[in-house]
Amino acid sequence: MTTADFNALARILPEDRIVTAASQLESLSRDFYWYSPVLKRDLANKLAEVVARPRTVEEVRELIRFAYARRVPVTIRGAGTGNYGQCIPTHGGMVLDLASLDRIHEITPDGVAVCDPAARLGSIEQAARQVGWELRCYPSTFVKAGVAGFCAGGSGGIGSITWGGLRENGTVHALTILTMEAEPREIRLSGQDIFKVLHAWGTNGVIVQVELRLAPRTNWAQIAVAHPDFSASFDFTEAIARNESFKKRLATTFEWPIPSYFAPLQKWVPKDKALAFFEVADDQLQRLADAVANTGGEVCFVAPFTEPRRGPLLSDYTWNHTTLWALKADPSLTYLQCGFSPTEARSQFRKLKARYGADFLFHVEFTKWEGVVTPGAIPVVRYTNDEYLQDMIRFCGEIGVGVANPHVNFLEGSGRWRHDAAKLVAKQSYDPRGLLNPGKMRGFAASLEQVGDPAPLPVAA
Ligand SMILES: Cc1cc2nc3c(=O)[nH]c(=O)nc-3n(C[C@H](O)[C@H](O)[C@H](O)COP(=O)(O)OP(=O)(O)OC[C@H]3O[C@@H](n4cnc5c(N)ncnc54)[C@H](O)[C@@H]3O)c2cc1C
Fold this sequence. Notes:
Elements: H1 3-10, E1 18-19, H2 22-27, H3 37-42, E2 50-52, H4 57-70, E3 74-77, E4 94-97, E5 104-107, E6 112-115, H5 121-130, E7 133-135, H6 147-153, H7 160-163, E8 172-178, E9 186-190, E10 206-216, E11 220-227, H8 230-242, E12 248-254, E13 274-281, H9 285-292, E14 298-304, H10 319-329, E15 333-335, E16 338-339, H11 345-356, E17 360-361, E18 363-369, E19 372-377, E20 380-382, H12 386-398, E21 402-403, H13 422-430, H14 442-451
Parallel strand pairs: 2-4, 3-4
Antiparallel strand pairs: 1-2, 5-6, 6-10, 7-10, 8-9, 8-10, 11-13, 11-14, 12-13, 12-18, 15-20, 16-19, 16-21, 17-20, 18-19
The protein binds flavin-adenine dinucleotide (FAD).
């Protein structure tokens, strides 16, 4: 950015909302990319030149006009809890920090939360519960994470065992975006159109409002069950996950020694055992505890789920928080994101164990994937070098285990790219100069090389 660029920016926002101090630039250019040793190395020196902190949609619009006119790259930031360097600016320029746009506008009588982009999921959950609703699914970072960051960067979480991923069942009711053009257009996307920007990492529009469908409120309870080995724990967890008569939000199982990484829980975690965590309707707690009998398992923790929270929740140790606890215990560990087969998972586990032993530790999150209860997994794996990690990813593919690779920093490589090119086509229309999170949608860079910048492109098939 040039001095003229900075002068132009100073005409839009007051000085205290334009960040140029080195230490702040560094922290606001980062997310949890360091979970991946590959990204930790490759993205270490990527920094914004400035961070702009708008407080209103009108200011966002003004900042877009500025960036478009002066060809300044823009990386949008919510709470910065993403895992894949999604909001790390790889081409310098401006970080658009939307944290101040955090209002919940309305919970409609039919259960839709209408929110600013950086409204925290934890706050939405709290507001929704007060009027008889709750989030359908949320990431384990929900206390801090913003709703638009979840839509643009996340995929699902607690609740996905019932409601599927964020992209399913119309959970994202509508997204309103501003385009990156000389005169930004405001477009409300609903129905199938949401897939143009859902999980697009902020590459093709600035989400300024999210409408999220909610679920009727349930009073939840938490319970942990230990089994002598992972096989028994998996069988039990799968049986509960598949049993539709249990109302549930969480069905998770961990191979030992993963439970040993949960430092604050060690007072009740039994040594050398596999562990399963559940959130079920509180009036079904006893039924679940009864189901443990005759499976060789033992109930080792029970607690009500209080909202607002008082004390830690079991879900603070699930989803990608599991990886965080593992990394704290042993920095040579990292993770993968896998989809095991609903019918062949046991044989896939055996093959992985035979090849990698203790370097591949099972952490399974049951989710409903397109209506089918599926053992999703975030295994904790040992990193020794890139080749070994690649071998794990390749071998998973060979034995039919899907991998959404969390060690790449571009959309097409991350395993959640839709092959209908909806996001690419949207970017061609909404961000013709390729200024939004440049480098993260590689197909767009390639398409620009073919036709030159910023000519509009023909609509891809
Ligand atoms: C410990 C840990 C546990 C996690 N668990 C889960 C989990 O269970 N499930 C899950 O899905 N994810 C999980 N994540 C990832 C992440 O926390 C969530 O996806 C979260 O919802 C991201 O929200 P955020 O506000 O922090 O987004 P950010 O990290 O700020 O941004 C994420 C992406 O969205 C883009 N973006 C942000 N705001 C906008 C906007 N207004 N318009 C357009 N693009 C935007 C950014 O540019 C970036 O590409 C986890 C991460 C950690 C570190």
